[in-house]
Hints:
Strand content: 5-15%
Distance between the termini: 167 Å
Protein name: GrpE protein homolog
Region (Disordered): 56-86
Organism: Asparagus officinalis
Keywords: Chaperone, Cytoplasm, Mitochondrion, Stress response
Subcellular location: Cytoplasm; Mitochondrion matrix
Radius of gyration: 55 Å
Helix content: 40-55%
Amino acid sequence: MASALPNHYLSFSLLSPSTRFPSKSTNVPKTLAFARTPSPRSLASQVSRRRFGGSLRAAETEPETVNEEENQVPVDQPENKEEQEDLPSMKVLVQAYKKAILDGDEKGVSEIEAAIRLVKNEKNRLSLKFVELTTEIASGKSNFLRLKADFENYRKRTEKDHLSLTSNARGEVIESLLPLVDSFERAKQNLNPETEKEKKIDTSYQGIYKQFVEIMRCLRVAVVGTVGKPFDPSIHEAIAREESQKFREGIVTHEIQRGFVLGDRLLRSARVKVSSGPGPLKVPLATMESSEDTIAMPNSN
């Protein structure tokens, strides 16, 4: 079977009779210009030479081992980055494959088929690598969001603990000052200044108490409402129940000791008396005696 002529040609230029040949020392170009369109066989042979060169370089660089299987290179897989970058495109290979079939070049067809398998294997490898990297990115994003949520929860918990610690420390200090407030209140109720000197002392005394109350107010300390309010066991401490014509049952009638709150925290319950209602109506004694006389009076008939 006659082989087809390759699809390339050599370009020569005619020499004039007066042209002299260069001497042996002159550098003569050793390469010849080819046509731009390569033949299927030349394209496939380039790929084969690259694969062979890559295998040879890999064999020279890798150390020898007892197990020969470790030095074997998988078939139809690029061995280095240079070969991966020099792989022809699938479109070029398909065109060369069609031309080789039309020209009847069996060797070129087999070499191009090997090159096509090589490109397909590289494509599959890159697809698997893409899926692997996509999975790693999704996993990294999930881990980032989880760590971000954990950090946000930690920050909120730390702020809450800090506020709770500050509030507890402030509450303990204010609780230790409440007996001083009681002393001021008792002194205000019991003192009755008469002389000018006593009035000056009482004025100074009350000025100090007002400053103290203002400081307590700045610290968000408030007084528990008592008289006229419904009894609330969460903020009131009932020490007695008494009849009251002014307040209905369950209403605080008297305050024995003040209660205080710090924000939403109860520092001390208020000690109070609670109304048990108006009680039974008391009939005047004169009315009762006249009723008895009327009942004992004999019938005139």
